[in-house]
């Protein structure tokens, strides 16, 4: 009788793994699209809902802030709920928030729905990355899977701008929100079919103090920079908000060095390779997303482009992103998730380091020109 080594059993390929990849990549594509899909629609939204000039940035900022500040918490919740359940909860919540935004009757309703989208997206992304790490145990297939995921994520921002222009021109800006409903449904059915249930991890604790300090600090910083645009840099509200934000984030760093289960272990950001990669991506994204925001208004309000023309004007950017991601992914495949399998085998939380610490550690860039708030995450890598 042939005996099977227990280690070999854990590497048996799931016959539905590529369907699972398609489902979770679709979910992440939806999130990436929503980072920019509303950009082209903003002039139409501003006219339709009577948004003020300072208020219009919150349509973008609310999503980015909710997403970036809660990614680490989303990783912990994913462990508590289990990957499959987290994916389904995240997709359902994201779809409902999108429907609420599409039906918005005023600025508060739209901005609130965008914030809710960010909250549920923060639950989805760590679950997506953990699912990939657990579903593809062999290094070769895992590299391919993360390459496909990287293509979807890397091209989604550019595609979102083009899609936003098409939807705004031929339908209505509200369809920039409603478009998420069929995408979420498709991804949800894919998750139900292909993603295997996984038991919740044991012994997971949530650092509530860290969550409050990080989220509160980022919100205070964003609000302070927003006030600087209208009130000036020397205004009490501006200085006070910025001071509160800096103090809260400083307290967050101090707390993370002393709690037993930190949201963000400091060794992650103190690693030179990781820190350098995060800084590089942060710098790139701050410039790119700020350019997308302001070019949208320049193209439509100054040059007189229609929404579809403005969206198509970003096609070179979209093509460049897709080509760049495809060129870079093979170069990184040999180094991606090196040692993850060994770590996973010794933990009850598959892919924790890969999916949450390296993959979803949020770097929030809350300054850019006139206070646009942009998020950055470095998806799917152990460096």
Automatic annotation (TrEMBL):
<feature type="transmembrane region" description="Helical">
    <location>
        <begin position="148"/>
        <end position="171"/>
    </location>
</feature>
<feature type="transmembrane region" description="Helical">
    <location>
        <begin position="115"/>
        <end position="136"/>
    </location>
</feature>
<keyword id="KW-0812">Transmembrane</keyword>
<protein>
    <submittedName>
        <fullName>EmrB/QacA subfamily drug resistance transporter</fullName>
    </submittedName>
</protein>
<feature type="domain" description="Major facilitator superfamily (MFS) profile">
    <location>
        <begin position="20"/>
        <end position="383"/>
    </location>
</feature>
<dbReference type="InterPro" id="IPR011701">
    <property type="entry name" value="MFS"/>
</dbReference>
<feature type="transmembrane region" description="Helical">
    <location>
        <begin position="276"/>
        <end position="299"/>
    </location>
</feature>
<feature type="transmembrane region" description="Helical">
    <location>
        <begin position="177"/>
        <end position="195"/>
    </location>
</feature>
<keyword id="KW-1003">Cell membrane</keyword>
<keyword id="KW-1133">Transmembrane helix</keyword>
<feature type="transmembrane region" description="Helical">
    <location>
        <begin position="207"/>
        <end position="226"/>
    </location>
</feature>
<dbReference type="InterPro" id="IPR020846">
    <property type="entry name" value="MFS_dom"/>
</dbReference>
<feature type="transmembrane region" description="Helical">
    <location>
        <begin position="58"/>
        <end position="75"/>
    </location>
</feature>
<keyword id="KW-0813">Transport</keyword>
<dbReference type="InterPro" id="IPR036259">
    <property type="entry name" value="MFS_trans_sf"/>
</dbReference>
<feature type="transmembrane region" description="Helical">
    <location>
        <begin position="232"/>
        <end position="255"/>
    </location>
</feature>
<feature type="transmembrane region" description="Helical">
    <location>
        <begin position="87"/>
        <end position="109"/>
    </location>
</feature>
<dbReference type="Pfam" id="PF07690">
    <property type="entry name" value="MFS_1"/>
</dbReference>
<feature type="transmembrane region" description="Helical">
    <location>
        <begin position="18"/>
        <end position="38"/>
    </location>
</feature>
<keyword id="KW-0472">Membrane</keyword>
<feature type="transmembrane region" description="Helical">
    <location>
        <begin position="305"/>
        <end position="325"/>
    </location>
</feature>
